[in-house]
Amino acid sequence: MSDVRATTLPADAVHITTNSDTEPFWQYAKEGKLVALQCGSCGHFRMPPTPFCPECQSTEKNWKELSGRGSVYSYAVIHGFPGIPDITLVGAVVSLEGADDARLVTNIVDVDPSEVQIGMELEVTFSPISDGWQLPVFRPAQG
Ligand SMILES: [Zn+2]
Questions:
Q1: Model-wide pTM > 0.85
Q2: How far is CA 78 from the centre of its chain?
Q3: Distance 17 CA to ligand 1 centre (A)
């Protein structure tokens, strides 16, 4: 245990770029919804979103709204960020409930970094970032 809590970068430090394949993900996030791109032909999930399904080459897209729950697949504790020496971040790859093998690179927040473990149950929350977008991040699941 420690008194350090993992957080996210300040909103104005996070800028995203979108393209026609990724923008729906961010539009849903703005509404507080976590979605994953599913192939509209074969059902294969692919994150990050790509134009073509690697399984069947289809361009059909189905944006599936997820439960918002997930679990830690991998993570790293980061102490300090350029220009923000006192910040502690937990960068993580999170397995998304309801999206097979799809995973999201994100941050875990509201947690003592020493308590993060592979497999830890998480739930999504949204952190404001630049230009009115919202970044999906995860915190330990509440019960
Ligand atoms: Zn497919």
A1: yes
A2: 17
A3: 25
> CA 27, CA 25: separation in Å to the nearest integer?
6
What's the rounded Cα separation, in Å, for the pair 61 and 112?
38
| CA–CA distance, 112 with 114 (Å, rounded to integer) | 5
- Alpha carbon of 69 to ligand 1 centroid (Å): 24
Contact 49, 37 (CB under 8 A): yes
How confident is the model over 23-61, as pLDDT tens digits?
A: 999 999 999 999 999 999 999 999 999 999 999 999 999
Which residue is associated with the tokens 């361009």? 59
Q: Residue 21, SS3?
A: coil
Question: 76 and 87 in contact (C-beta within 8 Å)?
Answer: no
Which residue in this structure is represented by tokens 């097979």?
Answer: 100
Task: Give the distance (Å) from ligand 1 centre to CA of residue 104.
Answer: 19
- If one counts every other C-beta atom within 10 angstroms of the C-beta of residue 137, the result is 22
CA of 49 to the centre of ligand 1 (A): 12
- Alpha carbons 105 and 99: distance in angstroms, whole number: 14
DSSP 130: G
The answer to whether residues 109 and 140 touch, using CB atoms and an 8 Å cutoff, is no
Cα 56 from chain centre: 25
